[in-house]
Specification:
The protein has 193 residues and is α/β, with parallel strands linked by helices. The chain has a single domain, classed as 3-Layer(aba) Sandwich (Molybdenum Cofactor Biosythetic Enzyme, Chain A). Helices cover 34% and strands 21% of the residues. It has helices at residues 17-20, 28-39, 55-68, 88-95, 101-111, 140-148, 166-172, and strands spanning 8-15, 44-51, 73-77, 98-99, 125-128, 131-136, 149-151, 157-160. The chain has a 6-stranded mixed beta sheet with strand order 2-1-3-6-5-4, sandwiched between helices. Strands 7-8 form a two-stranded antiparallel sheet. A hairpin with a 2-residue loop joins strand 5 and strand 6 (131-136). Helix 2 (28-39) runs parallel beside helix 6 (140-148), helix 3 (55-68) crosses helix 4 (88-95) and helix 5 crosses helix 6. Pathway: Cofactor biosynthesis; molybdopterin biosynthesis. Its EC number is 2.7.7.75. Catalyzes the adenylation of molybdopterin as part of the biosynthesis of the molybdenum-cofactor.
């Protein structure tokens, strides 16, 4: 029987010069919140930051969320392509203690089912203290695809989404037990011996 579901604190960081300056509304944070509220059964507390594509600003937001806000998990959205201002992976690598390259590999694997330009993405993930930080794409549809995986026409999972591995990873680094709605994304945990 799973433990009582504790509240989980999730940081959401959207990196965009134009959205942070008010040129257009940010779509990344609302898309992340919508997907996570459907997928996670725990009570969720969100902390958010909308920042320009400036490495010091991104690093500061990640440090604050991990160290001060006590986030179990942080998702960034945007800034992971090859353009000169896309520096979210560099900011992430600068603040983590351990890189988790499998997350980036799986994101590209999922995205290649939809677009050939997925090879241009530089998403990564890593651990800072007891917090997992994951870089996601910027488009709302790509966020949902990356987290939830590739499904066939009948709804079965063809390629596992990132979130299937995230609850167990958070547990392994000392975070809370996260339970998911299996209809959205089933969390994988090894069978107990």
């Amino acid at each position: 029987m799973p433990p009582t579901l504790s509240a989980v604190t999730i940081g959401l960081v959207s990196t965009s010069d134009r959205a942070s300056s008010g040129v257009y509304a940010d779509e990344g944070i609302p898309a992340l919140k919508q997907w996570l509220q459907a997928a996670v059964k725990n009570p969720v507390h969100f902390t958010e930051a909308l920042v320009a594509d400036e490495q010091p600003a991104i690093e500061a937001a990640l440090r604050r969320m991990a160290d001060t806000d006590g986030c179990d998990l942080i998702f960034t959205t945007g800034g992971t392509g090859p353009a000169p201002r896309d520096i979210t992976p560099e900011a992430t690598l600068a603040v983590i203690d351990k890189e988790m390259p499998g997350f980036g590999e799986q994101m590209r694997r999922i995205s290649l089912h939809y677009v050939p330009t997925a090879v241009l993405s530089r998403q990564t993930a890593g651990i800072r203290g007891r917090c997992l930080i994951v870089n996601l794409p910027g488009r709302p549809q790509a966020i949902a695809e990356t987290l939830g995986g590739v499904r066939t026409q009948n709804g079965s999972v063809e390629v596992e989404g990132l979130f299937a591995a995230i609850p167990y990873c958070v547990e392994l680094i000392g975070g809370v037990y996260i339970e998911t709605d299996a209809a959205v994304c089933k969390a994988f945990r090894p069978k107990q011996k």
